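Standup notes
- DV: blocked on the single-chain target, sequence here:
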Amino acid sequence: MTDETAQRPANPPRTTAVLRPPRPEMVRLVETLDACIGEFFEARTGLLGTHGWEAPREGWALSNLMVRNMEAVLLMARTDEVMVSAAWANARCVFEHAVRVIWLLDPPDRFTSECRWLGFLADVERFHRLVGEAVEKDPGLAGGTFHQELEGVLREFREGVIARLPAGYEPEKPPSFEAMLRTMDSSAMYRYYREGSQYVHGSVWGTAGYRKNFGIHAEFGEFSSTADWILPLRLCWLSLRNAGAILLDRLGESPKKCDWDSMEKSLARDFEALVRAIAPTSA
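- DV (later): unblocked, structure below
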C-alpha cells in the first residue's frame, strides 16, 4: 500500500456536475438579495438585549430561521439553475416564517402579542406530547420520557406566565396560515404558499419540472427554466422586507436604519434585467 493510497478516504465525496450554471443576471440579483440580508442584520444588531417582552424575542429567533432558509435559496440559485424545485421548498418556508413573524408582532398592544406568543408555546407543548405518545407506542424507540418531561416543564412555565397576565388578556391560539393572511389583508398571497407546498409534499405539480405529459407522450428529464426562479426569489424578498420591517419596529430604535425603498429599487432593476435576459428575442 502506497502512502497515497493510505491517505485516500474510504468513501471520497461525490461531486455533482453543474447542469445549468446560473446566468450572470441571476448571480447579480442574488448578490443584491444577499446584501439586503446583510443590511437587515446590521440594523437588527444590538436590539435584542433591550427587550423583556417574549414576542419580539421570538420574532428575532424566527427571523433567523427565515433568513437561513432564504440563504439556502440564494446558495442554490448561485450553484445550478436546475435546483429551483428544491429552492421552492425553502422559499415556502421563508414565506411561512415571515407571516408568523408578522402575525405575532402586528398588534400594537404588547400584551396581545405576548398572548399570541403563548399560543406558539402551546403548540410546542403539543409537539412534545405527540412525540412522547408516538414513542410510547413503539418500544423500540427512545426519548419518549425526555419529550414528556419537557412538555410538563413548558406547560408549567406557560401557565405561570398566563397567571401573571393583566385582566382581559388570554392566550391566543394561532390560526391557520390562510387565516393569518386574511388578518393582514393578504389572502391573495395564499396561492404562493399552496404552490410552494407542492414541492414540499412531492405532488404531481411539484415533479412537473422532471416530467412532461403522461402515458405514451410522457417525457422525463430536466425541464425547469430560469423563469421558474423569479417567483421564489421575489417571494423571499417580500418576506424579508415585510417581516423584517415589523420586527425592527418592535425591537426598537436602531442606529443603523434599513433603507427598504432603496433596496426595492435595486432589486426591481435586477429582476427587470433578468426578465429581459430570458425574454424571447423578436424576429
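- Follow-up: Residues 34 and 74 are 8 Å apart (CA to CA).
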